[in-house]
Amino acid sequence: MTSRARRGAGPRRHRVGRIAGSFVAIGALLAASACTAGGSSAPSTTIDPQEKVTLNFTWWGDASRAERYEKAIDLFEAANPNVTVKTSFSAFADYWTARNTEAASRTLPDVFQMDLAYLAEYGGFGHVAPLEDYLGGLIDVDAVDPALVEAGKVEGKTVAVTTSSSTMAVMLNEPLLKTLGVEVPDADMTWDEWDAFLARAGAAGAGSDPEVYGGVDYTAYFWLFQIWLGQQGLAFVEDGRLGFEPADLARWFSRSPALNDSRAVMPPERKAQLDGVDALGIAEVSADINWANFLPRFAEGPASPELSLLLPPHDEGQDTGLFLKPGLMLSIGANSDHPANAAQLVDFLLNDPEVAGIFGMSRGAPASKTATEGIEANSLDEKILDYQDQIAGSLDGTAPPAVKGLGTMEQTFVTVADELAYGRTSPQEAADRWFAEAEIALG
């Protein structure tokens, strides 16, 4: 999908004091094309304000994120009239399919959104430009937490800049639950209690038009599984190897059949019909577990649901497993003809207060303290901030390192979970298949 409609100026700046088979081929494709990566000459760090430059910038996301990016690009072009930025966006899965193809042909965009799951593939195989020559100059990271700067490194080189961070939360449509006559759960749920709640909500919504389900099959959520592992005292990756056994994953996947059989969660057939539309945003589910910064995206959906945030389930006596995940990252294609201008755009999207004002908390908590000066917290931002305050002392988990194969592992996870939801495989078979492919991807 291509996007570049002209937009008006962003909101005014205000300070908010407390804002602080198969998929394995992807890695092979990136590795095979790495032999053509980059030259040996030092990158240019000089900007010629008279040179007419065109940059390509792309991201994954929905229309709401696209509208915000377009406003931000308008501001950048106004401040840099010699630079034209061509933009595009797509859904997450389609986005990486396109980037993998571009990486193989050395035609990656000048600037593109990066995710922790793909950082090692792109950084390790030389498809993105090392940023050391720009940090402290064209890209100012003085106002960024050093841990978030470190998160953008692969093999000692900075290959991405983190613009935000986030963690997971339960999202509840309380007005919908009240309409259905279902008691709203409290903030201290076990996994069995969560499943029982989803079943009650699904049963109550069976007569609705359209039918309302309890939630979405959360066992397909790769990052939520990692939080669950932390609750069990296990690590996703440890000493360069998987830190758990197939039996652990099978135990996680074993929740899926009962959820689907009872229609506690949206059937995979209906989910496929939505074609990327958020079930929570159209009020066809009463709850979900997702990244807290997705709250504006869901709340601004067609049904405009009124959502609240709660701590995800965890069994009695266990840690929460929650961690701050580096959110939206930005990388520069190693093939860029204008890397200095690309670095200038990265800095703008990272640090500019007006850009932060446009996005609010929808990207997550801004990584740059300079950027946070531009946020005028609306009611949705306040909910995210309140949630962050609530869980500040409960972040006892650890985000996985940026290892090679992480993106492949995530895609395979979604694939086998989908097969499980359709009843085409068993929890143990799904776990064994994922584990076999994950070990190959990890190398």
TrEMBL record:
PROSITE patterns: PROKAR_LIPOPROTEIN (PS51257). The lineage of its organism: Bacteria, Bacillati, Actinomycetota, Actinomycetes, Kineosporiales. The keyword Signal applies. Residues 1-37 form the signal peptide. This is ABC transporter substrate-binding protein. The keyword Aminoacyl-tRNA synthetase does not apply. InterPro entries: Bact_solute-bd_prot1, SBP. It comes from the Bacteria. Keywords: Signal. Pfam families: SBP_bac_1 (PF01547).
